[in-house]
Amino acid sequence: MNFRTNVEIPDFGFEINYTQSCIFTGSCFAENIGNKMKTAKFKCLVNPAGIHYNPLSVADSIKMAVSGNQINIDDLFFANGIWNHFNFHSRFSGLTANETCAKMNTAMYDFYAGLKTASHLFVTFGTSFIYELGETGKTVSNCHKIPANKFNRRFVRTDETVEVWQDLQNILKNINPELNIIFTVSPVRHFKDGATNNQYSKSALLLAVKELTERNENMYYFPAYEIIMDELRDYRFYADDMLHPSETAVNYIWEKFSKSFFTKHTEEIIQKTEKIVTASGHRVFNPETEEHRRFCTKMLNQITDLCKENPQLDFSEEIAAFRIA
C-alpha cells in the first residue's frame, strides 16, 4: 500500500547538463539547491546579491544588475558601525564605504555577466509581505536591524507580482533570448506572519507564478513547496525550528530535482563528482602514512579520468587538497 501522496512533476521539455550555466536567486531555499549544484561542479551563481525573500526584491536585484549602474556612497547608509545597502544582504556590508561599494559592484557585474550567458534562472519566492522604507516608499530587501518604525509593511498583491515580473521578462529576453526561468515557492513557513497570513502569502505567490507560466513559454514551475507540504507531510522532515526543511527533506527535493532536469549520464557524473568532493573534505589524522598517500593518488587519478571526459569540471580545490596530503 502507498501511505503517502506523490506530487507529479511536469515534463519540462529540456535538460540541464555540464555545458550549461545556471543562476539561483531568491530565498534561502534557492541556496539549498543552488549549493547542491555548486558541489556537483555545475557552473552556477547562487544568490549573487544575497538572499531575497519577496518577489519585488528579487526583481529589483536583477534590474540593478542589468542596468549597469555603479553603486556609490550615496546609495549606502551607515548603521551599527558598518556601511549597508537596503537591496543587499548584510554579507556585503563593510567597515568602509569604498570596500562596500566595491563588493556590491563586483557582485552586480558577475550577476549581469551570468544572466547574459545562463541557460536557466531559478527563482524562489518566500513571502508576499514586503517592507518599504518610510521616507522613500522603496521596497527593501534587508532591514539591517534598523528600527521597525522606519518601515511600512504591506502585502504584495498577485497582480502586482505578475506585472513586475512580466516587465522583467521582457528585459531579460533582450539580453538573453534563450534563458529559461524556473520558479519555485519556498516551503519555509513564515510563521512570524501568523499561520493564516503565511497561507495567504504562499497562495498569492503560487497564483502569480501560475499566471506568469501560462503567459510565457520560457517560464516554468518546479513544485518544491508541494513536495514538502504533501509528500513529506511530517515534522520529522523539518529542522529544530519546525519551520525550515531538514537536511533529509532538502536531499529529497534534490533527488526529485535531479530526476526532473538531469539525464542518467549527467546523474552518473554528479555521483562521481560528489564522491571526490566528499573525500577531499575528510579530516586526516595521519597524512604521512603510505596508505593515505595511495588514497590521494587514487583520487587524483579519478579526477584526471573524469576531467578527460568532462573538461569543463573544475576540481582545483580538490586537487590542491589531495596534493598537499
Number of strands: 10
Fraction of residues in β-strands? 5-15%
In N-to-C order, the SSE pattern is EHEHEEHEEEEHEHEHHHHH
CATH third-tier fold name of the largest domain: Rossmann fold
CATH superfamily of the largest domain: SGNH hydrolase
Q: Low-confidence segments, ≥5 residues, pLDDT <50?
A: none
Q: Number of domains in the coordinates?
A: 2
Please list the strands of the largest sheet in the order they lie side by side: 2-1-5-9-10
Instruction: Supply the helix-strand structural class.
Output: alpha/beta
**Global outline:** globular
Estimated radius of gyration: 21 Å
CATH domain class of the largest domain: Alpha Beta
The amount of helix comes to 40-55%
CATH architecture of the largest domain: 3-Layer(aba) Sandwich
Largest sheet: 5 strands, parallel
> What is the terminal-to-terminal distance?
51 Å
Number of helices: 10
Q: What's the overall average pLDDT, rounded? A: 94
